[in-house]
Amino acid sequence: MEGLVKGLMKVALDAVAGDDDDDSRRSHSPSREERSRSTWAQVVSSGHEEDAEPEAGGRNRWSSRKEENDNEGNEGGWETVGSGKTHQQHGQRRRPQKSWQAPAETWSAFKRHPDEQQYMGHAKNAVNVEPTREELDDLSKACSRLWELDLNRLVPGKDYEIDCGGGKKVYQKGDMASECLFSWLSDDILRRPTYSRFCSLLDNYNPDEGCKEVVTSEEKHEQTAFIEEISRTAPVKYLYHYLVSKEIVSDNYEHFKRMMCGLWFDLYGRGGVSGSSSAFEHVFVGEIKRREEKEVSGFHNWIQFYLEEAKGRVDYQGYILPRRRGPYPDSETQVLTIQFEWNGILKSVSTTLLGVSPEFEIALYTLCFFVGGEDNHVNLGPYSVNLKCYRFGNDKIGSVFPIAEC
């Protein structure tokens, strides 16, 4: 059913509404009042933090609504979500949002303890995940190998379709895209194990950069389950063998998984408040800087973009014209530099890897963090990119994202 999976994600994520180099390399002081994650859409949209009242139950707002729907006698354990509204932004008609149905038991399964969950099998032995000497000596070759090992990467035109719209310079104002970036996504994509686990994490954060995060035991289970799931894939197995060969991690896969969980999910201070950010939140979910002028920071993941766009929270405003003469992006492009607004707040320039799997991005960025520098000029299949990697202190990822080089 067209849109089935969008509904699945929408139910799970309904509780949640420029990278600056200096932010990635420094910590800040004093703190602000901690707020509930459940009100973030109102906070970001209105800009009046003081007026936002937390909802009882925090991120369990979806669970409460689920119980209400169950009590109303919905048939077969399905929930209808979506408003059926047409979104109007900047005077341009956006694609209407549909009403979808999603099987509620799918998401309740993700709330179990990691030991009680079912995971996919490990990558087949036929897949060679051992790095060669050339790859150990050349980061670009290692990144190319990761691209080849991303067996879960989507195929443009088969699994999804995009509409790039018009191009613009970074400084140019105005919306150059009359349609959404994503025209459609196949129903089965977000049901895939690593994609589903990834999506279950996206509602765990308040995007206000100055808000202290509270991590529940349920959210910790989701983090552990995600790392466990991706650890069964070829890209992450390759990363492990690479880091073992470099003597960066010990030859113990359980220790490696715990390290990965800490690297991506441990909280640190950003925006003047301790415990307000993490590598995962910044890179994949996105944050809102609340300074003299609000701006979007981080937010480099295509799945998060797709889901937020489907809910009408993202307004795609066109692609950024290449700095050098070269081919313009089309529906087949999988490295795209774009401009968009998130809840009315501008992200002037952001390069996104389209259709890649969660395990590939985690493996790629982790590899650059451990063996690369601030600038990492590499090839990903047919694409030349600079993977920018900023540290937060000595042992944390402040930010990591691609920059297209053509």
From TrEMBL:
Q: Which residue intervals are annotated with compositional bias (Basic residues) in the record?
A: 87-97
The taxonomic lineage of its organism, from the top, reads: Eukaryota, Viridiplantae, Streptophyta, Embryophyta, Tracheophyta
The record, for Pfam families, names: XendoU
Recorded GO molecular functions are: hydrolase activity; lyase activity; metal ion binding; RNA binding; RNA endonuclease activity
Establish whether keyword Hydrolase is in the entry: yes
Q: Basic and acidic residues bias located where?
A: 23-37
Q: How does it assemble?
A: Monomer.
Record PANTHER family: PLACENTAL PROTEIN 11-RELATED, URIDYLATE-SPECIFIC ENDORIBONUCLEASE
Write down the required cofactor(s). Mn(2+)
Write out the ranges of the annotated region (Disordered).
14-104
Give the record's family classification: Belongs to the ENDOU family.
Keywords (alphabetical) are: Endonuclease, Hydrolase, Lyase, Manganese, Metal-binding, Nuclease, RNA-binding
The record places domain EndoU at 135-406
Can you name this protein?
EndoU domain-containing protein
